[in-house]
Amino acid sequence: MAKRKAPAGKATKPKAAAKAKRLRPAVVEDGPKPELVIITGLSGSGKASVLKALEDIDYYAVDNLPVDLIPKFAELTRDSATFRSAALVVDIREGEGLKRFPQMYEKVRHSIPTRLLFLEADPETLMRRFSETRRPHPLGVDQSVATSIAAEIKALKPIRDLADLTINTSKFNVHELRDFVRAKFRGVRDESKIMIYVTSFGYRHGVPPDSDLVFDVRFLPNPNYIPKFKKLSGRHPGVARYIRSFPQTTEFMTRISELLIYLLPHYIHEGKSYLTIGFGCTGGHHRSVMIADQIRKNLVSAGYPAKVSHRDMLKPV
């Protein structure tokens, strides 16, 4: 029997199939799957440190690769017999090329498993880092660092919205950031590697945006209304004794510590590599400071590495 010819309009099927095949992610038969990590974010947020951390765990590292070359680089990574994973940095230095980033990223994701990592930090932290290094902001030729940071945040927002992982590096030093990235991309699951940050804050200054858990301690008696305590912090022994003198303080700290110690193994099991816990009072000077310090001590006593910071403690009362 003679084969029936395909009806008009259906002859494009082979081409469509070929196109779909080209867009399908590569399948790796042996060894780890190839991966491309694209690092971007705000100037001063630690992109170079993250790139170095990935290089330390055998990612092939490239800094400041032009956007238009990324698709070809992704293909080389996918097909390479020399290296299986690669990481590259794209940032505000790319200029007009950033406008083409979303379209490029969509194309690359169909070529190789890809993760987009966006780094940021609080404007105050970024300004301090630029001041310490005495390096100019890439956008700061004719404007202040603060203005340049604001402009960069606005320019990179479309890319930030695409990110698979956003990290606020304000509380990290260089070594902590590298440790976190190594743990995150190695898939560490044990208690000795999770990073816990306990922070105090004042609600009048806003809730820290990177908090995973937030506890309101404004129900505790406020030392601010006692004249001799007003200008002191929750780290002053007299202020701490006053707050501890109320039974609800002790019960709260006991219950919260028990809750956290229950939750942490479950967070670790789900792959969480760091946890930020916030305690807030009105101004961030007294109650939240004392509570954050004690909770941090309780977590350390339970075998978890924890650090503490006090965002608003030094702000005017």
Walkthrough of the structure:
This protein is of the alpha/beta class. The chain folds into 2 domains: 155 residues, Rossmann fold, CATH 3.40.50.300; 116 residues, no CATH class. The chain has 10 helices and 9 strands. The strands form 2 sheets. The protein has a 5-stranded parallel β-sheet, sandwiched between helices. Helix 3 links the parallel strand 2 and strand 3. Helix 2 crosses helix 7, helix 3 runs parallel beside helix 4 and helix 9 crosses helix 10. The longest helix is centred in the C-terminal third of the chain and has 23 residues. The radius of gyration is 25 Å and the shape is globular.
Task: Tag the structure with descriptive keywords.
Rossmann fold; 9 strands; 317 residues; 40% helix; four-stranded parallel β-sheet; alpha/beta; five-stranded parallel β-sheet; disordered N terminus; 2 domains; 10 helices
